Amino acid sequence: MKFKTRRHSSLSGGFTLLELLVVLGILVLIALALFPARASSRTKAQSIRCLDNMRQVIGAVEMFTHDHHDLLPPNPDDGTTQPGYTWCAGQAGIGGADEFNPDLMADPNRCLIAPYLTTNVSVYRCTADSRTGLYDGGALYPASPLKGKRVPAARTISMNQAVGTVDSCYAAGSGHCGVPNLPVNGPWLTGSYGGNHANNGPYRTYGKISQMVLPAPAQLMVITEEAPYSINDGSLAAVALLANPKWVDYPSALHNNGCVVSFADGHVEFHKWMGQTLNVTTFSQPLPNDPDFLWLALHISAKMR
């Protein structure tokens, strides 16, 4: 009688340790290859969402202006929450009194463009801004259903400090009174605080759409995303004097060293910063001939002629 010899197959015995290590190595390489693509896709999606949000905001500014006889929304640089005196109320920066108060953004009396945005407060916040915290609007809104809850940061956008209106009392330096129908003062345009640039220059400020001649409307920045560690009131303070390169407030670089910007003609674009002084989480000043300072300076105002 012949006996059949049972033959062993490596296939029937499962993977060897070496084969398992090879497979795991391949999976790791695939994951490493896909991770940058996924991160890039997420960054792009955030930028697209912010572009859409900014279109809604600049559209609200235009509608406000149409309804108020060409006057742009009020834009004082004091973070006031007094009803009737600002396009976007409160101190929204890190540690600010209104950092986590989205109710403020929906209040049509304190944020004067709110009626044109219904209750969509998310448009004020950059999608790449990861700040969250306990609701802090109880002093203004004691009955808010958000009390005791964690909420996203209320705002990551600001208006060019050379754009908008102020009331006569604020223009004179003493609180708020009357109708905001004067151009903003633009106090930082020369690089040092103070001065009534709306009246005596040397740089233009814009209280009406009809005053937006230089720079051309397609080049005049109206609202931009601002860095979370820089943002405070609703105004982006910036220097127009090329001979005095200085960051006062810092535009955002949360979108892979870029941010979303809107202009006086109503168009919105993604702007990529070319230097390094904005791609940080701490303050640093522009270098000589810094391309980002030059770009901002040329898009916030122009000299009077």
State Rg: 26 Å
Put simply, the count of helices is 5
Mean pLDDT: 88
Number of domains: 1
Main pleated sheet = 5 strands, mixed
Please tell me what the overall shape is: globular
Instruction: Bin the strand percentage.
Output: 5-15%
End-to-end gap = 115 Å
Q: Which residue ranges are poorly predicted, with pLDDT under 50 across at least 5 consecutive positions?
A: 1-11
Q: Would you report the number of β strands? A: 9
Structural class call reads: alpha+beta
**How would you classify the quaternary structure?**
single chain
Q: What order do the SSEs take from the amino end to the carboxyl end, as H and E?
A: HHEEEEHEHEEEEH
- The helicity comes to 10-25%
Strand order of the largest sheet: 7-3-6-8-9
Plain-language structure description:
The protein is globular and about 85 Å long. The protein has a five-stranded mixed sheet with strand order 7-3-6-8-9, sandwiched between helices. It starts with 16 loop residues before the first helix and ends in a 5-residue tail after the last helix. The chain is of the alpha+beta class and 305 residues long. The longest helix has 51 residues, at 17-67. 25% of the residues lie in helices and 10% in strands. The chain contains five helices and nine strands. The protein has one domain (36-300).
